[in-house]
Amino acid sequence: MAVKDKVVMITGASSGIGEATATLLASKGAKLVLGARREDKLQKLRDAITKDGGEAVYQITDVTKVEDNQKLVELAKTEFGKVDVIFLNAGLMPNSPLSELKSNEWNQMVDVNLKGVLNGLEAVLPEFKEQKSGHVITTSSVAGLKAYPGGAVYGATKWAVRDLMEVLRMESAQEGTNIRTATIYPAAIKTELLETITDEETAEGTNAMYKQYQIGPDRVANVVAFAIDQPEDTNVNEFTIGPTTQP
Ligand code: NDP
């Protein structure tokens, strides 16, 4: 029921929200399986967790590749015997006006933010079905709730993630597989995310906005821990979280 001893897979674990969540959950006794593309960052995080007495393993993972997601699930099973929770968190936000036609970046966002989540589900759902339990947590965004200029494709991917989670929850209730789902909608969180914006004007505006109000990724980690910590018969569907001062 609690976080302790749960096996938690995290994608996008190499920085920001994923890193903060891994650190927090490890301190609460969870066993972490970390995935992202930057090995140096994953190694550093794994070392920091184990130095503090926690348990973590990692694997280089590109969420756009189904087989990488499958290997991460295999790693969890080999090292810890099961997967209790998958936190599908990897994402990027190269926002720009649609008229700029940055179609490579549109495709990147669809591939990572949306298909990355689908690939994670493809890898883990057979395990959850067999176990008749499991917990899927995703990082959507307030952009998945409210449209804004410059955020069309990013917002579309985050809306889509919300829908996936809701339907997964409903279907699993119908099918009796007991899979819990939680969708998190963060607002301005201080991470590396803004570095993915290449459109100069959008980057300038977004950086200026984030400078006014942003909170640390540890606050999102608290929410993930809360969702996991609930009794197995209790599903916390959604959380919106952001700075108190952000309108
Ligand atoms: P970061 O940029 O710090 O983290 C993004 C993570 O995603 C990194 O660990 C990166 O790792 C990983 N990632 C990117 N592409 C891939 C890929 N192809 N395969 C595997 N991992 C990948 O930003 P955040 O921590 O803020 O972002 C985490 C999530 O939170 C994202 O989904 C983002 O959309 C969402 N979010 C963030 C908000 C914010 O204000 N910061 C607000 C709302 C939502 P690597 O490069 O090593 O692969």
TrEMBL record:
<dbReference type="InterPro" id="IPR002347">
    <property type="entry name" value="SDR_fam"/>
</dbReference>
<dbReference type="InterPro" id="IPR020904">
    <property type="entry name" value="Sc_DH/Rdtase_CS"/>
</dbReference>
<protein>
    <submittedName>
        <fullName>SDR family oxidoreductase</fullName>
    </submittedName>
</protein>
<dbReference type="InterPro" id="IPR036291">
    <property type="entry name" value="NAD(P)-bd_dom_sf"/>
</dbReference>
<comment type="similarity">
    <text>Belongs to the short-chain dehydrogenases/reductases (SDR) family.</text>
</comment>
<dbReference type="InterPro" id="IPR057326">
    <property type="entry name" value="KR_dom"/>
</dbReference>
<dbReference type="GO" id="GO:0016616">
    <property type="term" value="F:oxidoreductase activity, acting on the CH-OH group of donors, NAD or NADP as acceptor"/>
</dbReference>
<keyword id="KW-0560">Oxidoreductase</keyword>
<feature type="domain" description="Ketoreductase">
    <location>
        <begin position="6"/>
        <end position="185"/>
    </location>
</feature>
<dbReference type="Pfam" id="PF00106">
    <property type="entry name" value="adh_short"/>
</dbReference>
